[in-house]
Design goal:
- The complex is a heterodimer of chains A (445) and B (138).
- Chain A has eight helices and 25 strands.
- In chain A, a hairpin with a 2-residue loop joins strand 11 and strand 12.
- Chain A has three domains: 75 residues, no CATH class; 246 residues, Alpha-Beta Complex (Sulfite Oxidase, Chain A, domain 2), CATH 3.90.420; 112 residues, Immunoglobulin-like (Sandwich).
- Chain A has 445 residues and is α+β, with helices and mostly antiparallel strands.
- Chain B contains seven helices and no strands.
- The longest helix of chain B has 14 residues.
- The chains are: A alpha+beta (445), B mainly alpha (138).
Chain lengths: 445, 138
């Protein structure tokens, strides 16, 4: 936030303290305010001002004077915006909540470094995460279990086997920007995905210790992130997975990303990493897992959130809420991470193309590339993953026969023989699960 | 709802407004979708042309600095004050969705997120503004 903005904020709040706001006086001198009529003030008080005021413990009569998109100082840091300085080359889709994706050519590393990991915030960053303060952090395991657990991070580290794994996290809405008609939400193109290395304990080991009952059907995950309205009573996001998925040995309760404490933007001090499902099941700021005897109904489990129509629909169809079912496995997918799109290559000479491939149901079986708009395909070499659900490196050499414009299309195939489509698959109201082939431009010179 | 464009189109064809439901129900044809202009193509990035087309691209009102970059048109002010209590205008400006989706999102914002429901007239102004400037409909 700029000094100028700071000043405006302080002036606005000072005006409240002096009581000027209640008299309807305008004039922090910052210029954008129009005359204050009583109706407008009442309106502000009942909407925006009340939300900010709830956090600040006071009303903000000059809220209208805040420059576009700006929020009071007391709340500003909560978006995590200040930490964007540590990120490199990300494209910011929104500042509050903070959402940013990574251009494909910055995802070339086998292990995605912090500075290139996309950001998907549903709410605001908790204060203890901003302060890197994990003291007293407890994880509760309760619900349909024989021995409910209260575990400190030290308990997790000492009582269970520590595991380190590279695993893909991908937002369920990655690729939303390509649906037509448009689907609501952040318009992710290809970059809401990454594959850092996570360290923690197996979710299955912890659940086994708690003694999951036969009645268990679904997990419910909770964290301490703050709702965008600042209302401490409101749940930001609470999702879950079928118990069978939770009991597979892949999922981790993680405290480290790439060998360091999980950064504030990615869930400090504890988060779930449940690979293969939409990223939203991998709860950040994790403090409770409740085992349920029915599908979870927490925030963003219901309605259209992370749900797909139960049957195929024509693009733009209004699907009744009752016909929407929870999205589970993510589809097979790949990216061309080298070279950067629009690169020039030498005509008639072999050029290396490479990237990553991954699938929600485990490993990828084959990788192909085309330089003629999908008319012919050549097989790429595909390396095995270091562990299940890590993305796999693929490489190909292409030779462009004459000078001009080419596109490289990349197509991964999963273990069931299912491949990526050339165009958007299954339109759905919120734009999930788009695994269309990634394309880059190459110019032969 | 690209209100003005829609009316102009219908008037130009000499058709009654009663045709709208027929258009909406017309036989789906994926090839017609493909023939529709997409987003502006970029020679540097073939993914660009595959993005959701913006029916109003380039011809809309200028962004209002005062109201978080929302298009400067009737309804911008009400929309701004109604919506920025929780999030910035960025999430609004990214949308190109159907009228029905806007109605649903309004409901969701009120019921699930705790948005204050204004009087009916203000609601009408805001929804009309959203459906006009952030629409996927022609």
């Amino acid at each position: 936030m700029s000094d100028q903005a700071d000043r405006e904020q302080n002036e606005g709040i000072k005006a409240v303290e002096s009581g000027a706001g209640d008299t309807g006086a305008t004039g922090t001198g910052t210029g954008t305010g129009t005359g204050t009529d009583p109706a407008r003030r009442a309106f502000l008080r009942s909407t925006g001002a009340s939300a900010f005021g709830a956090m600040l413990g006071m009303t903000i009569p000059f809220q209208r004077n805040l420059p576009a998109g700006l929020i009071p100082v007391a709340l500003a840091q909560d978006t995590g915006q200040a930490m964007m300085a540590e990120k490199d080359g990300l494209i910011v889709l929104g500042d509050r909540p903070l959402n940013a994706e990574t251009p494909a050519h910055l995802l070339d590393d086998d292990i995605t470094p912090y500075e290139h990991m996309f950001i998907r915030m549903n709410g605001l960053v908790p204060q203890n995460a901003l302060d890197s303060d994990a003291s007293g952090w407890m994880l509760t395991i309760d619900g349909e279990v024989d021995n409910p657990l209260e575990l400190s991070i030290d308990d997790l580290k000492s009582r269970f086997e520590t595991v380190t794994r590279a695993m893909v996290l991908e937002c369920g809405g990655n690729g939303r920007a390509f649906f037509n008609p448009g689907a609501s939400g952040n318009q992710w193109t290809t970059g809401a995905v990454g594959c850092p290395e996570w360290t923690g304990v197996r979710l299955a080991d912890v659940l086994a210790e708690a003694g999951v009952r036969d009645s268990a059907v679904y997990t419910a995950h909770y964290g301490n992130d703050v709702h965008l309205s600042g209302d401490p009573e409101k749940e930001v996001i609470s999702r879950g997975v079928p118990i069978d998925k939770a009991m597979q040995e892949d999922a981790l309760i993680a405290w480290a990303m790439n060998g360091a404490d999980i950064p504030a933007l990615h869930g400090f001090p504890l988060r779930l990493v449940i690979p293969g499902y939409p990223g939203s099941v991998s709860q950040k700021y994790l403090n409770r897992i409740t085992i349920r005897d029915q599908e979870h109904d927490g925030a963003k489990m219901t309605g259209y959130s992370y749900r797909l129509p139960a049957y195929p629909v024509a693009p733009g169809t209004e699907v009744p809420e009752s016909d929407m079912v929870v999205m589970t496995e993510m589809p097979v997918k790949s990216l061309v991470t080298f070279p950067r799109t629009g690169t020039e290559v030498a005509t008639g000479e072999a050029a290396e193309i490479r990237g990553h491939a991954w699938a929600g149901n485990g490993d990828v079986a084959a990788m192909h590339v085309s330089t003629d708009f999908g008319q012919t395909w050549q097989e790429a070499t595909l390396e095995p993953p270091p562990n299940r659900f890590a993305w796999q490196r693929w490489r190909a050499e292409v030779t462009l026969p004459e000078a001009g414009y080419y596109e490289v299309w990349a197509r991964a195939t999963d273990a069931n023989g299912v491949s990526q489509p050339a165009t958007t698959p299954g339109w759905n109201p919120r734009g999930y699960g788009n695994n269309m082939q990634h394309r880059i431009a190459l110019i032969a010179v | 709802m690209r209100g003005i464009a829609k009316i102009a189109l219908l008037a130009g064809l000499g058709l009654a407004a009663g045709l709208m439901p027929v258009l909406a129900q017309s036989r789906p044809d994926p090839m017609r979708m493909s023939a529709m202009p997409g987003a502006a193509p970029s020679p540097d990035d073939p993914m660009q042309a595959l993005r959701t087309p913006d029916p109003g691209e380039g011809d809309g009102p200028a962004a209002s600095e005062e109201f978080g970059g929302l298009p400067d048109a009737p309804g911008a002010e009400d929309t701004y004050y109604q919506c920025v209590a929780c999030h910035s205008t960025e999430i609004i400006k990214q949308q190109r969705i159907t009228d029905a989706r806007w109605d649903d999102l309004w409901q969701w914002m009120v019921e699930e997120q705790g948005m204050y429901e204004p009087d009916a007239e203000t609601k009408q102004v805001i929804l009309t503004y959203l459906k006009t400037h952030f629409s996927s409909e022609l």
